[in-house]
Amino acid sequence: MRLPTTLRAPARIPLLQVAKTAVAMILAWLIAGTFLPTQLPIFAAIAALLVVQPSVNQSIGRAIERSIGVIVGVVIAYAVGLLFGTTSWIVLLAVVVAIFLSWALKLTPGTANQVPITAMLVLAIGALSPGYAFVRIIETVIGAIIGIIVNIAIVPPVLIGPARNSVNALGNEAAATLDRLAAALMTPQSQAQLDELLITARLLRPMQKKTEADLTQARESLTLNPRQSRHRRDLDAVDAFFSRLGPVITRILGMTRAFHDRYDDSISREPTVEAIADELSRASHDLRLLSRDPTAAPEPESVTADIPVLTAPLSVAAPNSRHWVLIGSLVEDLRRIHDEITGEDGP
């Protein structure tokens, strides 16, 4: 039986991370149980479970969140218990106080969730065990430290690959949008086709935001990572290409919008339009070259797979008075796209 989609993630987390989490929990349980034998080391195992994250930087952040949450929860539990005792309604009061205090202090979600949980456990269980709260703090710190050590020691994660794939996919989609615009320039368009062209082009924006999020995760994966020196240059190259894609996407959307808003059936008969369409196809070709995985071999049927072709000068004939704004904007945006693709500074 398949679980409903609301309960399933889009993709599984890497098996290596699952294995590292299991190793961290086992070590935390054994080590904390050896040094603190009076209670089952549940807090240590939970801390290790939560601390093993997709990056070392996130692991350290989660360890700090968890430790601070436990400490604040213990302080609240002691203060409430000292003032009012440990009856059942006092446990509820401590939890409510912990929730509102976390909100007032603007604690992160991880810390804010930990504070009331710790306060509740200390009052509900620790009241019968002297020193329970202090031992739980030490136990949590042990589990968090072990989680960090395991995440660093066993192949610390580097997330440059997914970021590179996202950037290359964005570049290829931008190239496809240029091809669609080139085809539309040469073919009479209905209003429905114009709307579809614009809507499809606008999908580049959410794709761009998703790529930016993947790059942020890649940068985080190298922060405090002992393997960062080996991968920093690769990340800088991916980051630089993404920075160049931003203006290209803005120009592509501007060209598509101008074509959508100022289109009429006679535009394809303009003498310059065919040359503009050809240059758009050339720009698409070179953008695909930049977006290609450097480890992949060129496609056998593409004789120009490694040859940039965005080189021919564009001669612009005087357009019809109804079209000069559209032609002018297309030519200017095309020039700026050329500059971004080739890395040149335009006049």
What would your notes on this structure say?
- With 347 residues, this protein is mainly alpha-helical.
- Helix content is 71%, strand content 0%.
- It has twelve helices and no strands.
- The protein has helices at residues 15-35, 42-51, 56-84, 88-104, 109-124, 132-153, 160-186, 191-202, 204-222, 228-262, 273-291, 324-342.
- Helix 3 runs parallel beside helix 5.
Task: Please outline the helices and strands.
Layout: H1 15-35, H2 42-51, H3 56-84, H4 88-104, H5 109-124, H6 132-153, H7 160-186, H8 191-202, H9 204-222, H10 228-262, H11 273-291, H12 324-342
Summarize the structure.
The chain contains twelve helices and no strands.
Q: Tell me the helix content.
A: over 70%
How many whole angstroms does the radius of gyration measure? 29 Å
Q: Which runs of at least 5 residues are low in confidence (pLDDT < 50)?
A: 300-305
Main beta sheet, described?
Answer: none
- How do the helices and strands follow one another from N- to C-terminus? HHHHHHHHHHHH
Determine the strand fraction and express it as a percent band: under 5%
Residue-averaged pLDDT: 81
Q: Helical stretch count?
A: 12
Question: Structural class of the secondary structure composition?
Answer: mainly alpha
How many E-type strands? Answer: 0
